[in-house]
Design goal:
single chain, 20-stranded parallel beta sheet, 34% strand, 8 helices, Pectate Lyase C-like
């Protein structure tokens, strides 16, 4: 241990000596031409600020100097080298080919980014594909049950991953369907009223079982405590939190999506691609496809809950840090495996903890909202992403791959509870461009928070501003947390979401906004009445706007989504958003679903020149007509859109001042030239430069 510490100290001293040499040369006014290779950097730009390049290789050695010939081995060693020289030099860290296995997440603070007009960039070496992972490779598979084709391998005791991947494909818990018509829901759990469920009480590890539920827009997880006869006694607080509010586990909306399952038992491994972990014994059980030997597969078991945290403080944010051409893979968020479960409310937002405003009879009295539930809205949590960015500015993700991740892939300016630093929000000038998101348990990108400081920051440095999401390919997302939209931008001033292609998802493509109009100027009158939102001191009426404004959603190609949930839309807005534009998007192949959806409190948006082909309803606005004459969604302009035949609209009436003008139904798919131009232009355009 002492030898290793001494070697690290010598490395740091060497870095400082090289930095001092560079400063001395600059101070003498000399033109910097070259330094010996042992200096660990290569000068690339001598006009104003020098550029230093460090190299990293999985075959490297941290006692090396980071030169091309003597690369570092670990990413952490490269970080230490960067911190020594980035005060006066641009720094590039080039990663060699291969898999970089993290033993703990990478933490980027203000010291790791640019300093005083310098920039730091992490990128691959030429013709390399570096992959940063938070997993171990599982080997040593043995046959466990020949008849059922189940294999077993040893894993570290205490392993609690919720996903594994085999040859880059997501594997899930084994599960069985439960018939809702045979279930009775109580304050303690649920009774299954059929003898076919009698065998469940004999299952081992009953406290690892989970009830999974889908509704109209929620996807809930509640862990079991034990099974007595046909009664599933449930763990708290997950059961209480999942059985009140809206679209609850016990009272979901809509028969088409109200599925119910019991999951996570070795007995439930019946289909290829299912697994079970015996955490105490350190055993991983896996059912591969017929004829496949997992010993010949690359099986990855995540041991980290997230991979990268990028965040400083509001006084000292991380600045000028870029990631180019790197892949992030294999993390698994484990919180749903605790007694909290996953008490989903909408798009990765969830309840947690014991909630004092929940009525004792909430399972019956609060099946579709109640005053006590409204008191909790500002306390909702957000799902932590695999890569987290907060208290940061001028951060770039360019040509990055986010794949095989067990939660939302990339979180930008989310709540403090969704950041490992516990400093949330404060994301400014963030670019996510030309990147690829796929094979994800959750959504691709979550920008913005949902706390009071997200919509009305007490410190303006907390405001999320200027986030560009452009030219990204997003598919195969939300495979476990199916309530997640592919892209969600909540309270962000100046989000720009353009030229993305989104497909193969169970829920929405692009969602913007939050709050149901409750936090908008003057509040939402509908929530002042019978819902009682403003009856609680923590829910004030604001007289200033939120940060949900000046959003652009344009030129996106969205198709083959909304495969499960009926609620929401391919493009969806919630609450007031002044100076916001939804324009020239091409949406197609979402039968029986909504293309463009303006939900509660939507105000001041322009929706124009979109093409919607093959939607159940091309446009819908929720004006909360049953609350009339109170007005919730007003002053929107829906003009000159083209759509194939679909169902009718909501009450876009003159009373609500929602203009509908020049929207054309095309019955024969002979789109006019202007619509064809929009179809042609939508989606990824690599030749369009997005903010250098």
């Amino acid at each position: 241990m002492l030898v290793a510490m001494f070697n690290d100290l010598l490395s740091v001293i060497g870095d400082y000596m090289r930095f001092i040499k560079l400063v001395m040369i600059a101070g003498l006014g000399l033109i910097f031409v070259s330094l010996p290779c042992t200096a660990g950097f290569i000068p690339e730009n001598t006009s104003t600020i020098n550029t230093i390049t460090y190299y990293v290789s999985i075959q490297g050695d941290d006692s090396g100097d980071g030169s091309r010939d003597k690369p570092f081995k670990t990413l952490q060693r490269a970080q230490r080298a960067v911190r020594v020289v980035n005060a006066s030099s641009n720094v590039i860290v080039e990663l060699g080919d291969g898999v970089y296995r993290l033993t703990k997440p990478l933490r980027f603070t203000a010291a790791d980014g640019g300093q005083y007009n310098t920039k730091v960039t992490w990128k691959p070496q030429s013709n390399s594909n570096p992959i940063i992972v938070g997993s171990i490779s599982v080997t040593g598979w043995k046959s466990f049950d020949v008849a059922r084709n189940i294999f077993v391998a040893d894993v570290p005791p205490g392993t609690n991953a919720r996903q594994i991947w085999a040859d880059g494909h997501l594997m899930k818990f084994g599960s069985i369907p439960l018939e809702r018509s045979l279930a009775t829901f109580t304050a303690e759990g649920m009774v299954l009223n059929d003898s076919k469920y009698d065998y469940l009480s004999s299952l081992a590890a009953q406290d690892k079982l989970e009830v999974h539920s889908t509704g109209w827009f929620t996807n809930r997880i509640a862990p079991v405590k034990k099974i007595v006869g046909r009664t599933l006694l449930m763990q708290q607080p997950a059961w209480d939190n999942n059985t009140w509010g809206y679209d609850t586990l016990n009272a979901p909306v809509g028969e088409n999506t109200s599925q119910l399952f019991l999951a996570n038992s070795l007995n439930f491994l019946t289909e290829p691609g299912q697994f079970y972990i015996d955490s105490k014994a350190g055993k991983l059980y896996y059912l591969p496809a017929s004829g496949v030997n997992p010993q010949q597969q690359e099986v990855e078991l995540p041991h980290l809950q997230y991979l990268v945290s990028i965040g400083g403080t509001y006084a000292h944010p991380v600045r000028d840090l870029s990631f180019i051409g790197i892949q992030f893979s294999y993390a698994s968020w484990s919180a749903p495996s605790t007694s909290e479960g996953y008490t989903d409310q909408q798009s990765g937002a969830f309840l947690a903890g014991t909630l004092r405003t929940r009525p004792k009879d909430a399972i019956t009295s609060c099946r579709w909202g109640c005053k006590g539930f409204e008191a909790q809205r500002n306390e909702w949590k957000q799902m932590p992403a695999a890569v987290q960015v907060a208290a940061a500015e001028h951060i770039v993700f360019d040509q990055v791959t986010f794949a095989h991740l067990g939660q939302i892939a990339l979180g930008i300016g989310n709540n403090d509870d969704a950041n490992a630093t516990h400093v949330g929000l404060g994301a400014r000038s963030i670019d996510i461009k030309r990147s690829h998101f796929y094979d994800l348990a959750g959504g691709a990108i979550l920008a913005g928070g949902i706390s009071p400081d997200a919509h009305h920051p007490t410190d303006l440095r907390k405001a999320n501003r200027d986030i560009i999401i452009a030219n990204n390919r997003i598919h195969g997302v939300s495979q476990v947390y199916m309530d997640n939209s592919a892209i969600l931008s909540t309270y962000v001033d100046g989000a720009i979401i353009i030229h993305n292609e989104i497909y193969d998802a169970p829920y929405d493509g692009i969602d913007i906004g939050w709050g149901w109009g409750m936090n908008d100027v003057g509040g939402n009158a509908v929530y002042r009445g019978q819902r009682g939102y403003y009856d609680f001191a923590q829910n004030p009426t604001y007289e200033t706007p939120t940060l949900h404004r000046r959003v652009v959603v344009a030129y996106n190609r969205i198709h083959d989504i909304k495969k499960l949930f009926h609620d929401g839309g391919a493009i969806y807005n919630l609450s007031a958003s002044p100076d916001t534009l939804i324009a020239e998007n091409y949406i197609f192949n979402i039968p029986d679903r909504i293309g463009l959806y303006l939900d509660e409190g939507s105000r001041y948006l322009t929706v124009r020149n979109n093409v919607i082909d093959g939607a159940g309803t091309w446009f819908f606005i929720n004006t909360l007509a049953d609350a009339a004459p109170r007005r919730a969604s007003t002053d929107n302009h829906i003009v000159k859109n083209w759509y194939s035949p679909s169902k009718g609209l909501s009450a876009a009436s003159s009373y609500n001042n929602n203009d509908m003008d020049g929207n054309d139904e095309i019955t024969d798919h002979h789109w006019p030239a202007e619509a064809n131009a929009i179809i042609e232009n939508a989606g990824i355009k690599d030749d369009i430069e997005i903010r250098k």
